[in-house]
């Protein structure tokens, strides 16, 4: 009999081998590590279950629930009173990370610190952010495989912009994407790497996966991958990733306009049909739950992206569902 785990493994076979291997290693590092002293496997599964539920992904929810004796309690918020207070706090934090990382600030991290160590906070947040990545990757690769023939979608999600495109004086790339400094809410005076090193095994697996997705030899042009990362980060509200990947898109593409237009005037101002489709689909994947449809996939094909291009695009937007959530919740970005 084919299990949920078997179906998930089959779904990932369409990814590039380097991305697939890195994704499988990350899954083990996050959900089934050898060292579980910081956070037990049951708590990891509880977090992943809540993330799956808010993303309306029953298949992923079922795959992580099978290891839990209290899965029905975790599924039903009305029954959370049956759980220990620290577990309730953990689930509430991780659910908010999954739903909208912009709503998790210093006060929320301080409340979680009443029950958990800095290392435990980092690990729990990594689990929630990773599950946000994984649920998108699996769900939407299956959608891509089954898109079939039919009409293509048109205009997609809107990224909130400060002004209309017409008659608006755009910034230069350096102005639109300034250098940013990240300040940890978990480690006093710590930077991003120092904070994430509190769970070094996950940091290593995550870094290898990001590198495979963003810089590996793939079908989708690297500048387009950066554009998808920028679109995802803009919708999530991650100023740090917006600055980094907006600047990188400009450098890789040699185009000083598209990334700035996206950031300051929104996707409707992007004239190129292919780039607009990339931005819109990345945006649809960013929502919680994601709003991608088969018609969106067909739109990508109509704009000239083949199946491998689309798989790369799904991987990029899913990856930044993970990265944005860490950067926005474990600290905040400021200008130097």
TrEMBL record:
Q: Which domain of life is it from?
A: Bacteria
Query: Where would I find the Carboxymuconolactone decarboxylase-like domain in this sequence?
Result: 202-248
Question: What molecular function terms (GO) are annotated for this protein?
Answer: peroxiredoxin activity
Output this protein's name.
Carboxymuconolactone decarboxylase-like domain-containing protein
The record's InterPro entries line, in alphabetical order, gives: AhpD-like (IPR029032), AhpD_core (IPR004675), CMD-like (IPR003779), Uncharacterised_peroxidase-rel (IPR010195)
UniProt xrefs under SUPFAM superfamilies: AhpD-like (SSF69118)
């Amino acid at each position: 009999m084919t299990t949920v785990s078997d179906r998930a493994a089959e779904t990932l076979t369409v990814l590039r081998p380097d991305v697939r291997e890195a994704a499988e290693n990350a899954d083990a590092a996050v959900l089934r590590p050898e060292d579980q002293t910081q956070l037990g496997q049951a708590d990891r599964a509880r977090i992943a279950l809540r993330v799956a539920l808010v993303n309306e992904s029953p298949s992923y929810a079922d795959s992580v629930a099978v290891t839990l004796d209290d899965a029905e309690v975790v599924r039903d918020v009305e029954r959370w009173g049956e759980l220990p207070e620290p577990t309730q706090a953990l689930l509430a934090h991780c659910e908010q990370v999954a739903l909208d990382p912009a709503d998790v600030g210093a006060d929320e991290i301080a409340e979680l610190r009443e029950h958990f160590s800095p290392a435990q906070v980092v690990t729990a947040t990594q689990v929630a952010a990773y599950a946000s990545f994984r649920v998108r990757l699996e769900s939407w690769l299956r959608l891509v495989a089954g898109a079939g023939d039919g009409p293509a979608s048109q205009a997609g999600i809107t990224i909130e912009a400060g002004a209309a495109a017409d008659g608006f004086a755009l910034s230069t790339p350096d102005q639109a994407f300034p250098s940013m400094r990240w300040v940890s809410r978990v480690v006093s005076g710590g930077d991003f790497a120092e904070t994430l090193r509190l769970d070094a095994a996950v940091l290593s697996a995550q870094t290898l996966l990001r590198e495979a997705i963003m810089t590996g030899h793939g079908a989708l042009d690297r500048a387009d991958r950066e554009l998808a990362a920028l679109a995802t980060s803009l919708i999530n509200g991650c100023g740090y990733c917006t600055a980094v990947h907006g600047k990188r898109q400009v450098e890789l593409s040699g185009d000083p306009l598209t990334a700035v237009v996206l950031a300051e005037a929104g996707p409707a101002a992007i004239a190129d049909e292919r780039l607009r489709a990339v931005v819109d689909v990345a945006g649809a994947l960013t929502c919680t739950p994601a709003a991608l449809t088969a018609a969106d996939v067909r739109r990508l094909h109509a704009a000239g992206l083949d199946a491998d291009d689309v798989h790369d695009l799904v991987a990029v937007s899913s990856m930044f569902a993970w990265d944005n959530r860490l950067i926005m919740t474990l600290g905040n970005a400021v200008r130097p």
